[in-house]
């Protein structure tokens, strides 16, 4: 008799288990939606489709069960917890808005600390302090090249202002920063810059102005036995401008076009560089591939890989 009762109890628990699990998942989803009310989120459905919108409220339908009411580009929509695989803040879905390729945007790094490799010859990384300070650094490791001839970079940025806007722009950010680069141990460039970033649902546009300060006008560049030394001229006090674009392809959520246009001295149109490329990304990694075109004329391919582990 006791054996039969145990078997019956196990059958009852087995039948209730899936129902209880579904109920717990639904409760967790509603709790998460309540915490994110008023925020822009991306909801991934069980069939793989993505919905982007602002969470307005939660509902409990007699026929379909609990659900979430969202304001989307097509109007209000109700998504039921039985259809939802994942809810994520839009800002957590794409974690690379703090940079284009070389160009920093006004967006802070925040919690999106990263490490990466560029051109298979340099390591770089960055971290944020709250949503204000952003620090990035890089160092080349070219085999057979002396440490004194390697390239280094240090960039510090403070995001001064972030504001959600109504109309054609969703968000605007303003930042100031300082950038120090070493072509080798004897050649250092120091720049101060300001950058404004305008964010749309699919695109980010950044406008930058910068000035070279506190260094000499003439430099001798060398790379050991790999390159004959040559001199370059870069006037102290030169003022430059830059524009950067990062836009997501409509039909491919993880595919972005990235582009930068630089002029390091507005008095010299020949000091201009154009960078065009593609970025494959998800919430953890990004891979950039493209080409840089110089007005000399010359062109060079570029690639980088970034991992955002946390």
SSE string, helices as H and strands as E:
HEEEEEHEEEEEEEEEEEEEE
CATH superfamily of the largest domain: monomeric porin ompg
CATH class assignment of the largest domain: Mainly Beta
**Which architecture of the largest domain per CATH?**
Beta Barrel
Whole-number average pLDDT? 85
- Strand tally is 19
Strand order of the largest sheet: 6-7-8-9-10-11-12-15-16-17-18-19
Poorly predicted residue ranges: 7-24
Q: Count of DSSP helices?
A: 2
- Please describe the biggest sheet, giving its number of strands, its sense, and whether it closes into a barrel: 12 strands, antiparallel, barrel
User: Helical content, roughly?
Assistant: 10-25%
- Count of all domains: 2
Structural class: mainly beta
Overall form: elongated
Question: In percent, how much strand structure appears in the residues?
Answer: over 45%
**Rg (CA only):** 25 Å
List keywords for this structure.
310 residues, mainly beta, SH3 type barrels, Porin, five-stranded antiparallel sheet, 2 helices, 19 strands, 12% helix, 54% strand
């Amino acid at each position: 008799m006791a054996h039969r009762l145990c078997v019956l109890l196990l059958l009852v628990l087995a039948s209730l288990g899936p129902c209880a699990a579904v109920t717990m998942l639904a409760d967790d989803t509603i709790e998460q939606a309540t915490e994110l009310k008023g925020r822009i989120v991306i909801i991934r459905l069980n069939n793989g489709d993505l919905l982007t919108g602002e969470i307005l409220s939660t509902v409990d339908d007699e026929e379909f069960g609990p659900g979430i009411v969202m304001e989307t580009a097509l109007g209000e929509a109700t998504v039921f917890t039985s259809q939802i695989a994942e809810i994520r803040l839009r800002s957590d879905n794409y974690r690379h808005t703090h940079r284009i390729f070389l160009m920093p945007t006004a967006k802070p790094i925040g919690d999106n600390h990263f490490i990466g490799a560029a051109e298979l010859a340099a390591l770089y990384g960055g971290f944020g302090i709250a949503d204000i300070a952003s620090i990035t650094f890089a160092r080349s490791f070219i085999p057979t090249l002396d440490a004194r001839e390697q390239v280094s970079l240090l960039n510090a940025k403070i995001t001064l202002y972030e504001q959600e806007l109504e109309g054609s722009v969703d968000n605007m950010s303003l930042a100031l920063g300082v950038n120090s680069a070493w072509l080798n141990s004897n050649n250092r460039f120091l720049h101060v810059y300001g950058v404004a970033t305008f964010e749309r649902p699919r695109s980010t546009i950044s406008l930058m102005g910068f000035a070279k300060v506190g260094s000499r006008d003439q430099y001798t560049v060398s790379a050991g036995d790999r390159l004959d030394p040559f001199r370059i001229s870069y006037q102290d006090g030169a003022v430059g401008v830059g524009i950067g674009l990062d836009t997501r392809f409509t039909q491919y959520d993880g595919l972005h076009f990235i582009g930068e246009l630089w002029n390091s001295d507005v008095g010299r149109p020949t000091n201009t560089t154009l960078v065009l490329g593609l970025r494959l990304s998800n919430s953890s990694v990004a891979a950039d591939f493209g080409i840089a075109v110089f007005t000399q004329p010359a062109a060079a391919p570029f690639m980088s890989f970034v991992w955002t582990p946390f």
